[in-house]
Design a protein that fits this description.
Elements: H1 16-20, E1 38-41, H2 45-56, E2 61-64
Parallel strand pairs: 1-2
Length: about 70
């Protein structure tokens, strides 16, 4: 396993996106039992886009991400 995975997210490169990003958003940890229709592993572009699409179709969706979305 890559040791870098255990040290949190990698720093972002300098860009407009990085400069305007709100890094202070807190997301809840998964505790206890959660009942959903679909679980998406990974909060990258594809995972988030899939979650939005499924939620718009009426499904209850959870994204599980190790670091940050």
């Amino acid at each position: 396993m890559n040791a870098a995975l255990n040290h949190g997210p990698a720093p972002r490169s300098a860009s407009y996106y990085s400069a305007s990003l709100n890094d202070f958003t807190e997301y809840p940890r998964l505790n206890g039992n959660v009942s959903v229709d679909v679980v998406i592993i990974g909060g990258g572009f594809t995972g988030v886009a899939s979650a939005v699409e499924l939620a718009e179709r009426g499904l209850k969706v959870a994204i599980v991400e190790t670091h940050r979305i």
